[in-house]
Amino acid sequence: MANQNEYVKTVIQVLHDGEKGFPDIGEHLKDPQAKAFFMEEAQTRGSFARELYAEYGSVTGENEDIGGTSIAPLHRLWGDLKANLGGGDHTLLETAEQGEDAAKKAYAAALGDTSISGAMRTILLKQQSHIMASHDRVKSLRDQLAQ
Q: What is the pTM (predicted TM-score) of this model?
């Protein structure tokens, strides 16, 4: 079982992944509303990462750069490849939903650890509600564009 610091680090990494991944996919989307959502969501993920990282540093005393996950660059490359091979918005949104699934999983794991409490838990809970809504929006966009 990972310690609470590892769970929070994973959430921060996934947020960094989203900060980079959302605009990568957004730039290839043809639907203007979806494109705007992806660009805005990238900024939100960056803001969430900074907020959580600040609390993480105050709790742990660590100030190392956490960065993103090791798999994220490959995931972004896969999305770019799909776009360059003519994959439409639906295909790109499927890729984005996979990233959103990873974010949901990271938050669930962190919040499942009862040793994470106080301000850290409050931040995670607030952010998780946004992450869940974002996931649902990506899924809804994907389903709309499947028709």
A: 0.84
Distance from C-alpha of 107 to C-alpha of 125, rounded to nearest angstrom: 8
Q: For residue 22, what are its two tokens?
A: 């959302």
Which residues lie closer than 8 Å to 18 by C-beta, 6 or more apart?
41, 42, 45, 99, 103
Domain 4-144 is found in CATH 1.20.1260.10: yes
| Distance (Å, whole) CA 92 – CA 82 | 7
Side-chain-side CA neighbours of residue 105 (13 Å): 9
Lowest mean pLDDT among 16-30, 53-67, 68-82, 109-123: 68-82
Q: What is the rounded distance in angstroms from the CA atom of residue 115 to the CA atom of residue 123? A: 14
Q: What is the mean pLDDT of the chain?
A: 83
